[in-house]
Amino acid sequence: MASPTETLQLNLGSLRSTMSLTLHTHHASRIWHGRAAADGKAAIVGLNGYVAVMNRMKRGAEQDDPYSDWWMLRIEEKLNTTRDQLQTLREQVDQALAGLPSALSVGENLNVQPVKLPLFISSQLGFMALYLLADYDELARKLILAHHTALIDRSTLERWLNEGAHALRSLFSLAQQYRYSGCTRDDFASKNAAGRAAIEKFGELPQDVLEGTRRSRFAPPISRRSSVTSASARRASETEPTPVESVDAFPDTAGETPGDTTAAADEEGAPE
Length: 272
Hints:
- The protein has eleven helices and two strands, in the order H-E-H-H-H-E-H-H-H-H-H-H-H.
- It is mainly α.
- Helix 3 runs antiparallel to helix 4 (66-97), helix 4 (66-97) packs parallel to helix 5 (124-148) and helix 4 (66-97) packs antiparallel against helix 6 (154-175).
- The longest helix is centred in the N-terminal third of the chain and has 32 residues, at 66-97.
- It is elongated and about 70 Å long.
């Protein structure tokens, strides 16, 4: 018979932590929400949509789908590239703000009524993008301050805001192309019909990824599945919707005109 201590351990549930993200600019808020399809304009995925894809991708990698592993590697590389792009912009903004005279004291540019968003993220690659959005929000605040204090002109403000937004939306657009194959590495090792169909549909994989010797540093442990489960997953994957069109085809301000962007900058920017 199990002791009371053993019974207590068996009844333990999952760990949970309440998380939220505070945003101060409309620019970052628009990237979080994305844009729904309307008036002939295609939808643009936001951070919340990206996080949903990352959760599915992590589950696919856990189920021994080598394509999910390959996508995790691609997204991780894209995250690093996006971080470098934002870092370059941050250095340019800091250089501009260095032009403030030492006699002038300027506080941090914060919204008097920021938005606080609850977070439900279960993948590390989702959190990495969240950190980039927080960086962009800070970048936007500094840019608006630099423009307000006459350290940069309006065209520079718009260009740098758009460059940062484009970097993030390009990341989200890449993630939208992910599809779960419904196959396992055993399907490829045995060269069965499912494995051959996946290769025909999704293309060849690098050998080290196919063998599982190269995986993302955030890849989950693999949980082996039965062939019956694999077949069910494959049928489910065939019903997935088509991806959102690439954001590269749209302006970096989510379809708004330069006037819309600068109006938002004025609304957010002036320190009291």
